[in-house]
Amino acid sequence: MCGRYAFYSMDFSALAEAVAQPDLFADAEPRYNVPPGTLISVARRADDEAPVTIEQLWWGYRPAWAGAKAPQPINAKAETVATSRYFAPAFKRHRCLIPANGWYEWLSLDGRKQPHFITRSDSQTLYLAGIWTDRGDDLAPGVAIITEPARGSAQEVHDRMPLALDNDSLEPWLDPHFTERDAIRGVTRHIDAGLIRHWPVSTAVNKPGDDRNAALINPL
To answer: Coiled-coil ranges per the record (predicted)?
Structure first.
């Protein structure tokens, strides 16, 4: 599951050689509580021949062919994203990356849910694997973040986590020449589980309207 994340460093250095305009969002305001149903920064190719660009896409995936009443998932499971009729065309041709500094999950404790912030121990930018699709409405193309079974210390908080790719996997993930699941798996790897750490944070993060408050990620 990944239903809320933070992106405040605006560091795209790991993608610098691949991205056509790496400074596009250099002056963007940090966001410490990014909710679904909003525009988010995404690295993608608009088509097979286009360069990698960083754009603002809509966090909510619904292919145009599915119709206006179809579901708008924010996540897609790594186990089925390549075979699901809903997601497979995007996995084959429209893969993308969502830069983040960490994400939130809620741990049930004594009948209440305690939010935790999960991030990299080395403070580097996380690149979350995603897929995008043209929605066929007035919104920007829609995005779903791919999730996998939780690894490392993330398992202490939730049973799933976003698929965060290591830096050597970023360009292959965006390469349109890789279209088959086995080929994509052969050139991409998730980050080392030992890099993942987390800490409890204020329940103020439960309110998605406040995404400019840097204190939201502070340990309790």
So the answer is: none
